[in-house]
Amino acid sequence: MSELESLLRRLPAFPEPLPVLRDEDLPDSPHELFLDWLHAAIDNGSRQPHAMTMLTSRPDGTPVGRTLILKDIDDAGYHFSTHRSSRKGIEIAANPRVSFVFFWRESGRQVRVTGDAIALSEEVSQLDWSGRPSYAGEPNPDWQRYALRPDEFEFMQARLDRNHTRIEYRRDGGAWTHARVTTPAG
Ligand SMILES: Cc1cc2nc3c(=O)[nH]c(=O)nc-3n(C[C@H](O)[C@H](O)[C@H](O)COP(=O)(O)O)c2cc1C
Q1: What is the DSSP secondary-structure string of 56-80?
Q2: H-type helices in 19-163, by residue range?
Q3: 121 lines ligand 1 (CB under 6 A)
Q4: What is the structure's pLDDT at 162?
Q5: pTM over 0.90
Q6: How far, in Å, is the centroid of ligand 1 from the Cα of 70?
Q7: What's residue 155's pLDDT?
Q8: What's the CA-to-centroid distance between 75 and ligand 1, angstroms?
Q9: Can you give the pLDDT at residue 71?
Q10: Under DSSP, is residue 3 helix (H, G, I), strand (E, B) or coil?
Q11: CB 184 within 8 A of CB 61
């Protein structure tokens, strides 16, 4: 084993005790569970709990991720913003399917949110732009606020025995169904 591998193997995993995700506690709506976990991450002092990895795809199918900030959640979806002319902006224009991956290490929780990214109005985008610390009084026609409209969630609660609990929610029309994911999980 290389020195690096042995160093990596010795790194501590999650703090104890970890929360437990029980079937009987699962809400019908994934938004309720997401908000519960987000608020828990804010309350337990997690650094940038609203930061996540957003994944898009290149035209050849190559997946690409980068860190973004979640701005809000409403009926339109999970808001984020960026430059329309950025690589991700161009990728979204060609293929609006995107995923977010949140990882809250303090509680061993991961959530993947998948759906279509929808461009919100110019008014909403400019309001967002004007709220940025770098705002210098001028609108930015390249700035775009989007909402990811989810059709799929996967919630993962880590367990110290590595038998992680995973629950998938799927949108079927207007209703959500959920089930345990039983494929191997690390
Ligand atoms: C903590 C953190 C938060 C970030 N938030 C945003 C964001 O909300 N919007 C954004 O456009 N870029 C954000 N970035 C920068 C992106 O990760 C990325 O480097 C940049 O947007 C260019 O991505 P692209 O070339 O894939 O389009 C953030 C980076 C970090 C580390």
Answers
A1: EE-TTS-EEEEEEE--EEETTEEEE
A2: 30-43, 87-94, 122-130
A3: no
A4: 87
A5: yes
A6: 11
A7: 98
A8: 24
A9: 98
A10: helix
A11: no
* Rounded Cα distance, 12 and 14, in Å: 7
The answer to whether residues 145 and 81 touch, using CB atoms and an 8 Å cutoff, is yes
| Alpha carbon distance, N-terminus to C-terminus of the chain | 20
* Residue closest by Cα to atom 11 of ligand 1: 82
The pLDDT assigned to 185 comes to: 84
Residue closest by Cα to atom 31 of ligand 1: 67
Mean pLDDT by 10 residues, the chain (186 residues): 97 92 96 98 96 98 98 98 98 98 97 98 98 96 98 96 95 95 88
- Which pair of tokens denotes residue 34? 């997401």
DSSP SS3 for 181: coil
Q: Quick one: how far is CA 42 from the chain centroid?
A: 15
Structure tokens at 156: 């993962």
Q: What pLDDT does 174 receive?
A: 86
The CA 171 to ligand 1 mean position distance, Å, reads 28
Q: Is 69 in the pocket of ligand 1 (CB under 6 A)?
A: yes
Q: What are the residue boundaries of the structural domains of the chain, listed by start?
A: 25-180
Ligand 1 site-directed mutation target among 64, 82, 98, most atoms within 8 Å of CB:
82
Q: What class does CATH assign to 25-180? A: mainly beta
CA distance 35 to 186: 25
